[in-house]
Amino acid sequence: MKILKKILLSLLIAASMGAVSTSVLAETDKGRITYAPADAIDLVTGKIKVALDAIANGTEGDALADLIKEASDASKEINANDKVDIARSKANNVLKSARKLAQEAKVKEAEEALKDAAKKFEALKSLI
Length: 128
Known about the structure:
There is one protein chain. By secondary structure, the protein is mainly alpha-helical. The protein is built from six helices and no strands. The chain has helices spanning 2-19, 22-25, 37-56, 61-74, 82-103, 107-123. Helix 3 (37-56) packs antiparallel against helix 6, helix 4 runs antiparallel to helix 5 and helix 5 (82-103) packs antiparallel against helix 6. The longest helix is centred in the last third of the chain and has 22 residues, at 82-103. The radius of gyration is 22 Å and the shape is elongated. The protein starts with a helix and ends in a 5-residue tail after the last helix. The model has no long low-confidence stretch (mean pLDDT 86).
């Protein structure tokens, strides 16, 4: 009888843990767009290319920094696994340094940092 009580109690605990799992109940907010990891990477690289095109057209200073900030903000949509998140964080740090360089009017260095960031974000696809 004692063994039967222990078995029933452990089954009850296991069933209750499985029934009320928070990850199963997770949903996105209304009006929020969720992207697949590969689509989010493409979104970020697209925004980086827009910033590179802006450099080619002569954009400098805060306007360029704002374009780089948009790419940095879009990188937060990349959600896949821990390896991808660590690599995304490193690539995002390159974007932050590019933004800082753009604010300091060091356009050539910012352009090189953006090219490096684009390569790093493209490399994330192999980690998915």
